[in-house]
Protein 1
Amino acid sequence: MTRHLIQGHFGTGDRSNLAVTGPDEKQTRLDLVAYDKVIDYGIGGALTDLKAKNVFPSEIALDLLVTAAHVYAADTRISRDTESDDAWTREMRIVVPVSDAARWNAASPLLERMLNFLTGDRWTMQFRARPAKFSQLVPQPDLIMPSFTSVSLFSGGLDSLIGAIDQLETGEVPLLVSHAGEPAVSKSQDDCFNLLHAQYQKSSFDRLRTWMAFPKNLVRKVKSEDTTRGRSFLFFALGVFAGSGFRRHFELRTPENGLIALNVPLDTLRLGALSTRTTHPFYIARWNDLLKALGISGQIRNPYWNKTKGEMVAACHNRALLKRIVPSTLSCSSPTKGRWQGHGTQHCGYCLPCLIRRASLMQFGDSTTYTVPDLRSETWDPTTARGEQIRSFQYAAKRLRSKPGIERLLIHKPGPLTDDPGALPEFAAVYRRGLAEVEVLLKGVRTQPS
């Protein structure tokens, strides 16, 4: 195992080193300034974009986004295969220059707990003061207050689309926040936003779109990582960054169906890498703790935590519009994997998010193009990546049928649910209902080892 240190610097003149690197720790310098006082990696562009919308984030929220950039860089540019003993758990120390080092260092234990839970790694977060030249980076606000009523994450997926439609149909004016890291996702976000804009031309809702990616060779002689478990930390940080510019208490909404939010392991082997925690209730609760610790007046909420994806579709406030935009949304975990078969960017139809998507749209009418349009057209091998998720769902549904009430135990496997004990019955119920939707989809689908 190699321990890694990612240390941020504001400009070539910033030569501060918070701590001496140990003999088993590989240090990487992350230069944050593109030119003059403009922050690199899309952050400076986001500041400029928000200024045009009369949104002026706080310095502490800018610190948060810069911290998220460090986390995202480490997560995507340090290989789990080569840099850990178990091909998963990495040890990473991050040193970030911030506007208020004392406040950030006081919050670091909470931040480390969040990140360890999210990615399954061991994080050490440390903070130092920005150089004096960069002590003030956010433009001073003018007198015009922004008109947005909320911030909503906008990923280009079906759930975030429903979240946007529901808000717009009830007269809200959301600022949609997108992170683009690859062309397929970016196109879906653009297409969905443009279709919404055409429908709601009288609304002043808008979007912050930030492209952030790091050079493949950022960490010398180390391969990149494609699991991207830390991406949601960046996504949430972008939303908080924007919301802090409302100059009043804000709500950041993270639209996600309850089955995916809980992400209960489908079988006894489905742990670690296959059990993501992007919108898990424990993770969102820790985010709200972090905002309080940092003095940021906002709250993060998933309004669909107790709804299945099918229930979200059925209750959408403009179903006709949703039906029209569905083909532009992107749910697939790997939409380019069909290229070797001559397919373009499209849904595979058999990965975990594709299966949940297909199940949710069965009664609604699904106009999505899938690489495998009919799951009953073949016998799926559960020992391969193509058939693994199908068999796992079948196993999970059978387990619920054979052991009534076991869902009340299973919902605790991905992480603690101690923040709201009164919600436990609803967590168990949405898990059961979500699996039942997928079980209907898979009725008659055959799985057998080859």
Protein 2
Amino acid sequence: MATGYSMEREEAQLRALAGWALGALVVTGRHHTAGAMSLLREAHAAGTAVVEIWDHPDGAVEGDGFARIGFDHHAIGRSMARHLLDQGHRALAYVDSGVAEDFRAHVRGEGFVAEAEAAGAEVLLIRAATGDAFDAGREALTQVTRGHVTAAAFANDTALRVCQGGARRGAA
């Protein structure tokens, strides 16, 4: 079930599933409300496998017994910037998610900015104030077409699709 990055919706969905005899619960990310964590721990204690995906914990998580399958988003952001820097780009942009709860995208952006700045490159962080990825994509396209940015990395495919569509039309 999709939550739209809402931790409250995740908790409500977990509550709805709490009475079922589930073999496993798979949740995206490691950020949960206190209520959701309690439900996950209760499910695990009752023998339900709990798996957190798409994330890598900052350190060892003791005592909950959850399986974790994911990666370090900060390192991914650094790798994204390093790839563009290795291609010779020195004016970069990271087009971030405008959704406040999209923690993974923001951490990738932090890594991207840190790597670019460490290399002495100019870096622009673009985040749609409205949470609308299309706004961020249009802003990135404007920066690229004006020559302020020579390469951009994207937090999600929505902003990328806007930029690709604009590039095909040859307009900002």
